[in-house]
């Protein structure tokens, strides 16, 4: 989550400082307003969003259990041959191409040389 402290948002430079009472009052007001607004928005949004996401997750679960899994199993019976053909085509065509590309590019070495030809030196203009 996002958790910013007062010092991360308002920072005085070391050279100048405001009056101590002003600085302490500013911190107190900032923290009070932040906490109040957070609690107000939590009250407004938390319960409706919890209900909404509860309904959505329940719907997705029910659809998965009672619709998608049975349809998938039903379709796997007549379409099982498609998976076998697809696997054979991929194994016969794409596997050799990908393996060849891997062997071709597997030995490529990329290095960056600076002005003094030291690979660890920082390149400076």
Please describe the biggest sheet, giving its number of strands, its sense, and whether it closes into a barrel: none
Distance between the termini: 41 Å
Count of beta strands: 0
Quaternary structure annotation = single chain
- Taking all Cα atoms into account, the compactness measure Rg is 31 Å
Average predicted local confidence, pLDDT: 85
- Summed up, the domain count is 2
Number of H/I helices: 3
Helix fraction, binned, reads 55-70%
Tell me the strand percentage band: under 5%
Shape: flat
Instruction: Give the helix/strand class.
Output: mainly alpha
Sketch the topology as an H/E string, one letter per element: HHH
Provide the low-confidence segments as ranges: none
């Amino acid at each position: 989550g996002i958790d910013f402290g007062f010092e991360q948002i308002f920072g005085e430079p070391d050279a100048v400082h405001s009056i101590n009472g002003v600085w302490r009052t500013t911190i107190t007001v900032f923290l009070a307003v932040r906490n109040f607004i957070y609690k107000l928005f939590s009250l407004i949004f938390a319960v409706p969003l919890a209900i909404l996401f509860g309904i959505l997750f329940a719907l997705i679960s029910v659809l998965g259990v009672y619709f998608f899994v049975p349809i998938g199993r039903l379709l796997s019976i007549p379409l099982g041959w498609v998976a076998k053909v697809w696997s054979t085509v991929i194994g016969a065509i794409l596997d050799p191409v990908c393996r060849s590309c891997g062997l071709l590019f597997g030995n490529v070495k990329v290095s960056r040389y600076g002005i003094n030809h030291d690979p660890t030196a920082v390149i400076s203009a």
